[in-house]
Amino acid sequence: MAYTLPALPYEYTALEPCISKSTLEFHHDKHHAAYVNNFNAAVAGTELDSLSLEDAIKAVAGDAAKAGIFNNAAQAWNHSFYWNCMKPAGGGEPTGALAEKIKADFGSFEAFADEFKKAGATQFGSGWAWLVLDNGTLKVTKTGNAENPMTAGQIPLLTMDVWEHAYYLDYQNRRPDYITDFLTKLVNWDFVAANLAAA
C-alpha cells in the first residue's frame, strides 16, 4: 500500500512573492517526492507497508535501526502538513475559538507570534517550528531534522519548515524575513483551527 505524494493544495505561483514557483517546484516535486519514494521503497513487503504514515512514524520512532524509515516517513508527513499550513493571502490573526485559545494559553497573539518566530529563528540547522496541543494546552516547540511532536504525545496544529531548501532561493540567509512573511502573509488559520477542533 504505497503512500502517494499529495498534490499541492494551490498552484505553484499561488504563494508568490513570498514563496516562488521555483521554490515550490524544487521543494514539493524533488525534496518531498524523494521522501515519499524512499519511504515506499524502505517499507515495501514489510509489516510497515500496511500502516498509515502516522502509525509508521510512531512504530519506528526511537528505533536506531529504523532511523532511515523514520526520517523519510516523518519528512513525508511533515511536508504534507506544511503545505496545508499555508494558503494564498493567508496570515494575519486567527479568529473564533482558536484566537481565544491562543490568548488564554499565551496571553496574547503577539506573545504567541514572538515565541513562534523565536522557535523558527533559533532552530539550529535544519528543522521545524510548531504550534502543538500538549495535554490540552497550546505550546510552541521546535524539532530538528525530521522529528515530529506526535512522537512526544503532542498534537501538531501548525508547522513552519525552516530547512534551508524551504526559503533559500527566495530569502537566501534571511530566515527571519521568511518567518515574518510566513506568519503575516501565508498561514492558513482555517486549517489550524480545524486541527484544534478535531483534537
Structure characterization notes:
Strands 2-1-3 form a 3-stranded antiparallel β-sheet, sandwiched between helices. The longest helix has 23 residues, at 21-43. The chain has 199 residues and is mainly α. A hairpin with a 2-residue loop joins β1 (127-134) and β2. It is built from 8 helices and 3 strands; from the N terminus they run αααααβββααα. The chain is globular and about 50 Å long. The mean pLDDT is 96. α1 (21-43) runs antiparallel to α3 (67-84). The protein folds into 2 domains: 21-84, Orthogonal Bundle (Helix Hairpins); 96-198, Iron/manganese superoxide dismutase, C-terminal domain (minor pseudopilin epsh fold, 3-Layer(bab) Sandwich), CATH 3.55.40.20.
Overview in brief:
The protein is mostly helical and 199 residues long.
For this entry, give a set of tags:
single chain; 199 residues; mainly alpha; Helix Hairpins; minor pseudopilin epsh fold; 2 domains; three-stranded antiparallel sheet; 3 strands; 50% helix; 12% strand; globular
